[in-house]
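Schema walkthrough. Field components (list of strings):
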Amino acid sequence: MGNIDIKNAPVGVFDSGVGGLTVAREIMRQMPNERIVYFGDTARVPYGSKSKATIIRYSRQIINFLKTKEVKAIVVACNTASAYALEELRGELDIPIIGVVKPGAEVAANITKNGKIGVIGTVGTIESKLYNKCIREHNESAEVFGTPCPLFVPLVEEGWINDTVTMEVAKRYLAPLQDTGIDTLILGCTHYPLLRNLIGEIMGNDVTLVNPAYETAVKLSKMLEESGIKCDAPVKARAPHEFFVSDAAERFMSFANSILPYDVDTTKVVSIEEY
Amino acid sequence: MGNIDIKNAPVGVFDSGVGGLTVAREIMRQMPNERIVYFGDTARVPYGSKSKATIIRYSRQIINFLKTKEVKAIVVACNTASAYALEELRGELDIPIIGVVKPGAEVAANITKNGKIGVIGTVGTIESKLYNKCIREHNESAEVFGTPCPLFVPLVEEGWINDTVTMEVAKRYLAPLQDTGIDTLILGCTHYPLLRNLIGEIMGNDVTLVNPAYETAVKLSKMLEESGIKCDAPVKARAPHEFFVSDAAERFMSFANSILPYDVDTTKVVSIEEY
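Field assembly_structure (string):
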């Protein structure tokens, strides 16, 4: 590909399901010129309970698929795949790849004033202590308090985002964190930014919320700039964003249209096991 | 095996995860002499969004594993596997096998007085209309009203069983069913019997709840009796129940101990893809 072709190539974004759409949304907002090819592995969701070897195999298949779309960079918009597969896959690729864990951890480590950082996520993410490890790489003395919030994903997927039930659930999950004195809270699951207002209301103004989806898009922007492959032509003048899943395209599309600043009118089902 | 050996052989019970434990619980209550070998496919849960071919393949692997435990009969304690794999697998087996859908559907079809039957379940179960089909085989003129309740499974798995949040969620899900005039309601997901009291309180005394876990155990008892392989020696005099999963044994065991009338002190992880 020539340099102009590379600039016009899309960014590949993948997740185990719909959660990574919050990352796609941030990319659309911050880099309206970039075109996205999104893959959601809706047939094999959730990744959280699967082994490292399986996650690497799944991620490799998805990357093989994204390569057929000639992507210029890849965003692993899934906490589990970022944790288990990112370093392994980076060595196999000749295009840039970033995950969602490090950008959020780095920002939290740098902005905390009292060194007390909270992390909320799925049971898998919290038990893996991956955020703790990444935070300490930038702030050795930070204290990290992790709390799993297992009902947040199903509540978001049910569409109960500004809802009295969700508020009640959030109050219960966040109560132990409120007692720790944290001044920074990482929304450590791709679904959680959709509950940001509600979580902010409960935690109050003294706690800064870190949205890894936002920070990942910031990092992607820098990376594309530095590599000289950032697009400068408006996306509307070119092919539109594309969406692919491994199952249940209708359900995916309805969720996508409820959160993206973009009208998703087609989602194709891919036999991902063949890649 | 001789006849006494067959009588003493265990019953294999499997599910995509922990839900089928409600069926194991009913078997323990109704047939305290029977020994159970339970397999929960916790690494590949949920089955609801997977294709028929995949579900058949997974079920076949699990049955191959259960056969190594010399089970005398198999209970498919999972709605999706009952729907997709049961008939296919029956032809391959030389021991009896039953599922959870037909026993509940048959009872509901027979006990309804006004011919209006409600079914609650996962999105997959409701969209498949399998209960509708099975009910109509016994009651051609029955009207069936299905409502998915996607948050019930995560709420039960979080242990919020007698809980104000769960009550609020249930009221919202069941409201449309209350307007239909049903006199019978099938709890069409293996987790839902754990919410029976709460659902009963909302639906009132005029609606009879059908618990497929209970009806499946009743049918199993008849089947073992008719085949002359029902156990007559107390389970305590023999090997205890056994529990196997494909991942996350600790989490499984803690859930099992919260609902079973039996102390689960060991759960082994099986590499089910090798069977």
